[in-house]
Amino acid sequence: MDIRPILQVALDLLEIDRAVEIAKEAIAGGADWIEAGTPLIKSEGMDAVRELRRTLPGVRIVADMKTVDTGAMEVEMAAKAGADIVALLAISDDSTIQDAIRAARKYGVEIMVDLLSAPDPVKRARELEELGVDYICVHVGIDQQMVGKSTIDLLREVVQVVSIPVAAAGGIDASSGKDAIFYGASIVIVGGNITRSADVTGSARRIREAIDHVEGAGTSRRSLEEEMISIFREVSTPNITDAMHRKGAMRDILPIIPGTKIVGTAITVQTFEGDWAKTVEAIDEAGPGKVIVIYNGSRYVAPWGGLATLSCMQKGVEGVVIDGAVRDVDEIRRLNYPVFASAIAPTAGEPKGMGEINVEIVCGGQVVRPGDYIVGDDCGVVVIPKERAYEIARRAKEVEKNESRLFEEIRRGRTLSEVAKLKKWEKL
Ligand SMILES: O=C([C@H](O)CO)[C@H](O)[C@H](O)COP(=O)(O)O
């Protein structure tokens, strides 16, 4: 085993031509091993491994078969296609692992076993070492990452109980890659943070540098809440609605000042045409990190204007969303405060005191409950149910990463339809 940590790049892509191009860019940035990811193998079969073998002579190829049965047959297939290492799942029966190892010895390849979803991963890692596997992979799957599970915590336990090399996989970036090596991994497996980047070589190089210099690792882990808020600030509302399977967008509500963005949890207000009491009272209940979300319904009588905006600003409130009209737009512009509304009108109502604060409302056609996450930008406003907010943030980030790679491919001269391989992936 090398002293230098191994950087394995997982090609979780659907097309072999794109995979080869990305693999070459990743190697230029310092990747050591190239993995034919499970999605690539499912999409292209063993030809994916064959093509990587042919185009990347001298590079170790890992076939992530995620085998759970017929271990010997799948190892033979991958080995004959040119793989050097074949990955199985730890949840397989011992008989599958043992027969896979026999086939691996026969065909001169090595076996990596992935602890993904193993019920007692630490115990299983010990058993797998006794069975004779070559590498253990501590892996938090892509869907598990989206709900906040982390590879590093499990890695720290597994490295205590085995002496064979351990790989860490699952949402690894420069900082967690560094942590993984610091806590005892010998191999870091990186997928999306390299392969979906517009600058694959640069991303691979940054991770390479991080894992080669681990001093100062293991110190700075953000809370899931902090991570989620910072992701919502980075991604766009289109990224979020894509992540929500086209749901969540309010209708007809746009920023009064283009270029302003809001991210926060909802303080809801139900009020009625011509009554601005509850909208203004809600300011006293709001503060930093909060977005006041108002259903008023009228396009002609505004429950919000310049004075309310200034008052909101003074309290550090993140922004305001109104299904209804807003006035004093010139003042709001001068204050440069994020107000999103469905109409502009000069007339105000009266403070009558009808309605309620912090009840479930419908705003822009979407149900909003107190505490739901609200993100607004130039494309509109989306509501993210609080229970799934972290997951949606992570999935939106994946959408954004994916698009940044597609942007780069279009910049290089391909058409969108070529890049998206529309003809191949049209629904039959
Ligand atoms: O094995 C993987 C996953 O199960 C899909 O096949 C990924 O290769 C692995 O998780 C690494 O990818 P990232 O999590 O995107 O780094």
UniProtKB/TrEMBL annotation:
The segment(s) forming the Orotidine 5'-phosphate decarboxylase domain are 6-207
Top-rank taxon, per record: Archaea
Q: Which CDD domains match?
A: KGPDC_HPS, RraA_family
Q: Which GO terms describe its biological process?
A: 'de novo' pyrimidine nucleobase biosynthetic process; L-ascorbic acid catabolic process
Enzyme Commission (EC) number = 4.1.2.43
Keywords, A to Z, come to: Carbohydrate metabolism, Lyase
Record-linked Pfam families: OMPdecase, RraA-like
**Which reaction is recorded as catalysed by this protein?**
D-ribulose 5-phosphate + formaldehyde = D-arabino-hex-3-ulose 6-phosphate
Q: Which family does it belong to?
A: Belongs to the HPS/KGPDC family. HPS subfamily.
What NCBIfam families does its record include? PRK07028.1 (NF005442), RuMP_HxlA (TIGR03128)
- The name this protein carries in UniProt is 3-hexulose-6-phosphate synthase
Q: What is the lineage of its organism?
A: Archaea, Methanobacteriati, Methanobacteriota, Stenosarchaea group, Methanomicrobia
